[in-house]
Amino acid sequence: MTTKNTVEAVTDNRFSIEEKVAFLKQPEVYPFHAQKVNTKETHMSWIFFVGNFVYKLKKPVRYNYLDHRTLASRLKDCRREIRLNKKLAEDIYIGLTPLTSTEEGKLELSGNGKIEEWLVKMNYISQETMLDHAIRHNCINEERLKQAALLLSNFYKEEPSVRMGEEEYKKKLRKEVIENYKALIQPDYKLPEQVIKKLTNKLLCFLEKHSLLFNERVSQKKIIEAHGDLRPEHVCLTPKPVIIDRLEFSRALRILDTAEELSYFAMECEMLGNVVLGEFFFNTYSEQTSDNINPSLVLFYKIKRACLRAYLGARHVTESNYKRDNGWLTKANRYVALAEQYDKILTT
Q: Out of the domains of life, which is the source (predicted)?
């Protein structure tokens, strides 16, 4: 699961990503009165917070799971992002906004000239309404939390199962575990190799010995196109709760057992210090679907996901923007330690 990104050698338009970002940082370019533009950079996007709206610009990058080097590919994923997120955040994702250029070679937002880029436009949601903020500040609105859990459970009920055979699903899990192991033991990360090896062997052993358990998840049609990145910071406890940032760039990464996604969410809540929220979402899901998930399966998925998150944190040290930030390796080691805690409970 190595990840190399390549900034686009601009062939589909005449403006670089730096020029586009510099333009969008200016308050006066927006078609409404904007006093300030706040920005956030991620691996794959630039995000611009402007008054009551948010604009997302996808970077012209390539990873092993996506290729955004052309305008056409970025447009395709912009459209997919809006479509997918309508199911869990219908009122948040507004639509596409073009970034255009004039005949004089100047950029415009929503102009009539040549389209140079596409942006996803969204309604702004205050960070104070996010579940991770509520956990950190111990201010969870229980009624809104219940509505968010029901929203997710109903989404799982309505989403059709993915056509996948039992052996195919187990092969997929095995491949993910092995690939993540190979990624985690890279020397640059300086993570405890013997611990990671022990965790990997535990996962593979459990997968082998409890083959029927995974067969049941497939036969019960619990493998769906899920959210794909269900973390507390994506659960918004607004008056009408929504769940944002459904993963759009890879269908393969969205194909999950509902139990795995809920386990991932619970694990992330536990990383923030809350050990009951995950159980609350599990219980709501079980009440709505009559799917009583085996506790050992939950531990298996938690270990698997904690190892993945360890890698996603550790890989920052190989990227120029983050090399000097030791916080990422600290976080990666915290995920490994959490996986060890689960490992002590899980029996094979």
A: Bacteria
